[in-house]
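Support reply, case 0932

Customer input (verbatim):
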Amino acid sequence: MITLAHLSDIHLAPLPAVRPLELANKRITGYINWRLRRQSGLGGSGLSALVSHLHEQAPDFTCITGDLVNLGLDDEIATALGWLKGIGPPDRVCVSPGNHDAYLPGTLTRACAAWRDYVSGETIDEHLFPFVRRIGEVAIVSCSSAIATPPFISAGRFDAGQAERLARILALLRDGGYFRVVMIHHPPTIEGDKFRSGLWGAKLFRDVIAENGAEIILHGHTHRSTVQAIRGPSGDVPVIGVAAAGTAQDAKPSDDPARYNLFRIEKLGPSWTCSMGEFGFQRLSDEITLRLQMRIY
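Our regenerated output:
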């Protein structure tokens, strides 16, 4: 049996000192938003307790679907590297970056350089994404929807090039008999009318899954715990979203309290099984509990 943990939307706090010149761009709106709203709602309350609880489960691998930082500051990127090392060594942890990790043009390049060992793996060509990590017969495929956007836009992009590479990777892994876990920050179920915060190119992603399949898809971005599905070649593929790990328990009602998911994947003869446990805080409690347990595959 292989166990996978899933964390997302860390939004490490507190913010480092911000110099005035660093706010002479889109960051000014994000900084004001942090000071007025996110500082309390995403204050990192309980994050260390959540991570300690995760470590007690001793997962074989941890998947992190982005938004480690807030404003894409160099000091934040450096702090995030230290935090990643606290989660585990690079051979047991990988990241699919989020929109905050690409806050301004050039931010994602600097983040990927700093987090290099956590955002790399086997690839189909010279492109960084998608990359593959293999743990036994389980394969984690990390995509990237992270792009720099104008103020008040938190959308992501999945383009035709990444779609073509993902299709080839999924086909190869399918032929190799792997249980395929696909990571992406933005949920592939949101597009069109969600121009400001959705995934541009979500249909491309869904078309790849419909043709080539995957066993489960993991995402973040919404700060909500969700279980949805998209079409695969032989039935629905589960799409699992996890609440923001950095969310304080007194956050706004639209955000779930901090949580993580733990997947137990096992091959029984020619067939796979996968069950999920959701661990985290209740809104009015400081205790981390098993909130949900279900079989998803």
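We compared this against your earlier run and they match. Two observations from our side: The two ends are 14 Å apart (CA to CA). The chain has one domain: 2-295. Please reopen the case if you see a mismatch on your end.
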